Amino acid sequence: MTINKNDIEQMEKLARVQFATTLPGPKPICLVGTRSSKGQANLAPFSSVTHLGSNPILLGMLSRPDTVNRHTLRNIIETKCWTLNHVTAEIVEQAHQCSARYSHDESEFQATGLTESTHPETSAPFVAESPIRMALSLEDILDIPTNNTKLIIGRVQFVEIPDDALTSDGRIDISSSLASTALDTYFSITQHCQLPYAKP
Q1: What is the CATH number of domain 30-160+175-188?
Q2: Which residues contact 105 (CB under 8 A, 6 or more apart)?
Q3: What is the mean pLDDT of residues 60-78?
Q4: What predicted TM-score, i.e. pTM, was given to this entire model?
């Protein structure tokens, strides 16, 4: 089967979104924790988080066009900080529910029963149930004119992980974290192999 540009353009909107977001394969799924300048906590799932650099450690994530009120984007612009919280099987249903369009004055923590956790070094909220959590500060927001999305770039300030999750060579055990495709499909992560550093 070949699906060409015309076929894609003829797809119903939701089907096209599902198709497009499945193309890259499973991607990490994180809950993004933010707080408004008025103190209102917000939690939203993002599957567009990617590594941008290691010194300093920079992570990027895409925000959809702000043609409607994007609480996460607005809060990051206002406060310059946010958290990333890995999603596990134990909280996947609650994390998925966070994608619902709650009003700006309603907390997804309260709506889904997830536990809000705070840290003195950031105003952004963490998900207490998440085993891998990190705090970021805003470095830049880049506009992508082609589709009016925005690449939000953050610098990792600190990371919270279980004591036994860090290996001697710097890897983090992410076997309990989930990945996702489309808008509603989640995958467990199983390590296939670990190969030596490639040289010519």
Answers
A1: 2.30.110.10
A2: 40
A3: 86
A4: 0.93
